[in-house]
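Allow me, if you will, to draw on your knowledge of protein folds for a short while. I have a record of one protein: its chain in single-letter code and its fold written as discrete structure tokens. Could you please explain, in whatever detail you think fit, how the structure tokens follow from the sequence? The record follows directly beneath this note:
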Amino acid sequence: MSHEAIYQWVYAQPVATLRRELVALRTGRTRRSGPRPAPAPRIREPRYIDERPAEVEGRAVPGHWEGDIVVGKAGKTAVATLVERTSRFLVLVPLTGRDSLTVSEAIISAVGPLPASIKRSLTWDCGAEMALHKDITATGLPVFFAHPHSPWERGSNENLNRIVREYLPKGVEITSDPHYLAAIAAEINDRPRKIHDWKKPSEVFTELLESDASTV
């Protein structure tokens, strides 16, 4: 007998019967609703990671980024985190709000100075803050979306977010001071990584930029 059949039997009984049988409903409900419907998509016309160039997976080609927002106390403050997949280089983008216009404009400003070869794609989750993804794509940085409830599809970003939380733990207000956030990012980027034979992400990212400059 499946657990679903048991639930349906329990919730079909009159409350008096349940009491006599000493069946305690922890939620206090006498009816059980069915499965929750999938939420309506908040992103219009998303392009999922299935449409990304195949080169993204191998990490050999630089310029593919993963992004997210880290939220502060009571959800009132936040910072955007951008991670370049090849170097694992982190950029902390100051935010003065979590609305889609603020987030999209902040990301466009943050990546604007980078050469085109270092901004080939951005992968984000399906958060409403990325509703204006087409504005970012229009600047030459195409946005793709991880599938809902699939954080492993942005593994580099998820790992870096955990490190960011060492500096900006849950329950604290997150500053939008660019100098303070840049200092945090610089310290994280100066941590040697085993995956880079103990080179720092900052060193690897600098090499990518210099390599691009030499080919111009």
Remarks:
- The chain has eight helices and five strands.
- The chain has two domains: 1-32, 49-214.
- The first strand starts at residue 64 and ends at 71.
- The helical segments are 3-12, 15-20, 55-58, 100-111, 133-137, 155-167, 178-189, 201-214.
